[in-house]
């Protein structure tokens, strides 16, 4: 074989030209202490708050404390294989969450990994977990209703797209049921729903997923779950991951509904982390920034201005109270951040009034701005009638001789309470709500026995759908009740009542 020297020279020259001197520098630190899902790391002087760090065995951590001689890191995985003296690498990136349409219909953990037993979700789009909320100039007033399908809420405590409405009450009073009903009612309303489960049993999350699947609601819903068995850092991340996913859709001009179930467990997880990081405890042993924990989360719910696409995130945070005490630390914090609250009462629940909403303590600070005209017309007097009924009911227990007008008010109040009762997972369309409230407000139910009111309601809806679809269509189209329509409705009511009797 004849090898010519000039050929060898050319090959070497070419290789020298193509050679790139690549030196990769990574900032590294050392684990000083590890345990209870917390690590203290020395040597990472340039670490940022919320930065992602890489530990051995593929475990990642998130920087939470920046101290003089070390940093406090929460671990997003198992700390069993991490020991003192291990090398920790800086990634130079803050914690990010994968986002996009691929998540719709899936159950994922706060890191975007599938936990529903199906294939992993792969997304090439990421968003930072923490982000500054839109400013006043970027926002628009809340004026479009977000119908929950629950009569007592849509009538007395209306929710608008872009609002933050707190659901508060003791355990087992139907808080999650209201949230699930609201998700089911968004079918065909062009709203993407995100359900964030914090610190719940895995069996409970599976049950919720099954309910949503049966109602056909998983087609537009994402479930982000940090279960009770997951470490506190994952429970802490869950709501921020959920809202980061929602912001992706909001910026595309879409409407999003996000439910945080529940923020009391979120605050408890944060308290556990803070105490382990040796942050000073405050009231009820919560750290001093527990208000900021929830305010920076809930402020991210907004209705964007038309220049930014007009998308919205509506937040329904849930808070569990102890023995009905809404003046405790976390409940008062969240009440002061949100635009109103729906208060569920144990006594009402046990008395068979479900949903067990206390109309006196519940309020929506957006109010009528988020109601259609037809609903405003019929809903105006409901709250007053209920308040009067509650007052008279307490008074009537002592007096036996009641005058005629008091008796009439009591009878009317009883029927209004009865009409606002509703079965679980059975949302009512806004047109049906308007019609049945019109019947109640105009005292058409007074001559129907109290135990037959719900039976009459069912019959009334069926008859209206079959024999008077034109009335329903007109309310849907005009969102109002004109004088001509009133005459039609009165006529239909008389006819249905005659058949019912």
Task: Describe the protein.
- With 501 residues, this protein is α/β, with parallel strands linked by helices.
- Helices cover 39% and strands 18% of the residues.
- It has 16 helices and 16 strands.
- The strands form three sheets. The chain has an eight-stranded mixed sheet with strand order 8-12-11-13-14-10-15-16, sandwiched between helices. A six-stranded antiparallel β-barrel has the order 1-2-5-4-3-6.
- Strand 4 and strand 5 (71-75) form a beta hairpin.
- It is elongated, with a radius of gyration of 29 Å.
- It starts with a helix and ends with a helix.
Topology:
Elements: H1 5-18, E1 28-35, E2 38-42, E3 51-54, E4 60-66, E5 71-75, E6 87-94, E7 96-99, E8 107-108, E9 125-128, H2 151-156, E10 166-169, H3 175-185, E11 191-198, H4 202-214, E12 221-226, H5 232-250, E13 255-261, H6 263-276, H7 290-298, E14 312-320, H8 329-337, E15 340-344, H9 346-350, E16 363-364, H10 373-379, H11 382-396, H12 404-419, H13 430-441, H14 453-467, H15 469-478, H16 483-500
Parallel strand pairs: 8-12, 10-14, 10-15, 11-12, 11-13, 13-14
Antiparallel strand pairs: 1-2, 1-6, 2-5, 3-4, 3-6, 4-5, 7-9, 15-16
């Amino acid at each position: 074989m004849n090898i010519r020297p000039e050929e060898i020279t050319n090959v070497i020259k070419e290789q020298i030209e193509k050679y790139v001197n690549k030196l990769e520098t990574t900032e590294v630190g050392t684990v000083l202490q590890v345990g209870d899902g917390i690590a203290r790391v020395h040597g990472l002087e340039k670490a940022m708050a919320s930065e992602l760090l890489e530990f051995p065995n593929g475990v990642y951590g998130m920087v939470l404390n920046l101290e003089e001689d070390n940093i406090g890191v929460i671990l997003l995985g198992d700390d069993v294989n991490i020991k003192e003296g291990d090398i920790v690498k800086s990634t130079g990136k803050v914690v990010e969450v994968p986002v996009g349409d691929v998540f719709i219909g899936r159950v994922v953990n706060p890191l975007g990994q599938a936990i529903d037993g199906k294939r992993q979700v792969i997304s090439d789009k990421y968003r930072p977990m923490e982000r500054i909320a839109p400013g006043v100039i970027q926002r628009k007033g809340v004026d479009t209703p977000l119908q929950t399908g629950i009569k007592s809420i849509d009538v007395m405590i209306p929710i608008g797209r872009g609002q933050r409405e707190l659901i508060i009450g003791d355990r087992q009073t139907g808080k999650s049921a209201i949230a699930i009903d609201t998700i089911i009612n968004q079918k065909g309303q062009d709203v993407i729903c995100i359900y964030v489960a914090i610190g719940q049993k895995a069996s409970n999350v599976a049950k919720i997923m099954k309910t949503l699947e049966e109602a056909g609601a998983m087609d537009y819903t994402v479930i982000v779950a940090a279960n009770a068995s997951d470490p506190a850092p994952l429970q802490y991340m869950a709501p921020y991951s959920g809202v980061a996913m929602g912001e992706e859709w909001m910026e595309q001009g879409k409407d999003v509904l996000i439910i945080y179930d529940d923020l009391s467990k979120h605050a408890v997880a944060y308290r556990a982390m803070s105490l382990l990081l040796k942050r000073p405890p405050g009231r009820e042993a919560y750290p001093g920034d527990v208000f900021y924990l929830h305010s920076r989360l809930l402020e991210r719910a907004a209705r964007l201005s038309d220049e930014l696409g007009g998308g919205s995130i509506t937040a329904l945070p849930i808070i569990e109270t102890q023995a009905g005490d809404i003046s405790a630390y976390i409940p008062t914090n969240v009440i002061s951040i949100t635009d109103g609250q729906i208060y569920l009462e144990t006594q009402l629940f046990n008395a068979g009034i479900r949903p067990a909403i206390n109309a006196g303590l519940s309020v929506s600070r957006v109010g009528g701005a988020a109601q259609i005209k037809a609903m405003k017309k019929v809903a105006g007097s409901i709250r007053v009638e209920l308040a009067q009924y509650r007052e008279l009911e307490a008074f009537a227990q002592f007096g036996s001789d009641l005058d005629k007008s008091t008796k009439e008010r009591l009878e009317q109040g009883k029927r209004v309470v009865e009409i606002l009762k509703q079965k679980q997972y059975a949302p009512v369309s806004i047109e049906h709500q308007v019609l049945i409230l019109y019947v109640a407000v105009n005292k058409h139910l007074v001559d129907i026995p109290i135990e037959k009111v719900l039976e009459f309601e069912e019959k009334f809806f069926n008859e209206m759908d079959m024999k008077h679809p034109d009335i329903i269509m007109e309310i849907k189209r005009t969102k109002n009740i004109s004088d001509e329509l009133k005459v039609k409705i009165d006529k239909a009511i008389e006819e249905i009542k005659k058949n019912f009797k």
